[in-house]
User: What shape does this take?
Amino acid sequence: MQDYLTKATVEGVRIYALRTTELVRKVAKMHNCSHVAGAALGRAMTGALLLAATMKDGERINIRLSGDGPLGEVIADAEGNFVRGYVQHPDIFLPLKNGKLDVGGAVGQGKIIVTRYLQNAEPFTGFCELKNGEIADDLTYYLYKSEQTPASVALGVLVAPDGDVLAAGGFFIQAMPGAEDKVLEQLEKNVMRTPYVTQLLEIGYTPEKIIEILGRDLQVNIRENIPVGFRCRCSREKIMNALASLDKKTLQEMAEDEITEAHCDFCNTTYQFSKAEMAKILAGK
Assistant: This one.
């Protein structure tokens, strides 16, 4: 089944749901993530896609969970229907907590930092303390505390004992101006009765079906489906431009090596530049 995001409205409330199983599986393997690291990264990237879906075309959002847990920083960056991300220490392991992956313990205590790159405006950065490191709760708390946006975020990644990602996805609920209290009360009841999103995805439920479950006994209006996936914005040309922006002395020192390497954390790609290529960059200074 393809990964995609479904946008819908339910009587004055915005509901987005998405499946990210394939992209989370791909990125977890790309970064050689442990079970708990893959779950944390998958949740963060799924959350970034949900928030990016609320923004205009060409706008981008960056989510950084900076806790004191063994994972280090967890970073996700989304623009439109594409996302990328990485974990500072992807190979850490923790014992299960109540039979589940201890994402909260792996992230630890600290801050969540969210930067929105807007059209025709300066980037906006907000932050607040992490609620519990579980990422969905942290995003919900951040939206209310820092952006004054009451919302509900649910995220999940189901990882098999062998490390394979079996299911990943989430949903986002936000009341629009004028939403009636009785609708919000019904949605709250529905959310409480809804199984974990990964349980639904694992048995084959689509994002549309998940929205119908969340909006049961209410009028659901499915608006559109949008494919989502992983994409990194790095390239050899961009790395060369970044090297060219360094000061002359630094470039001279780097040009003495036979091979200069530059690494992209987001896609775990290492670019190599020969001594002749570095000399050419240096000549342009």
Remarks:
- The first strand starts at residue 4 and ends at 10.
- Residues 35-52 form the longest helix (18 residues).
- The chain has two domains: 4-230, 236-283.
- The mean pLDDT is 96.
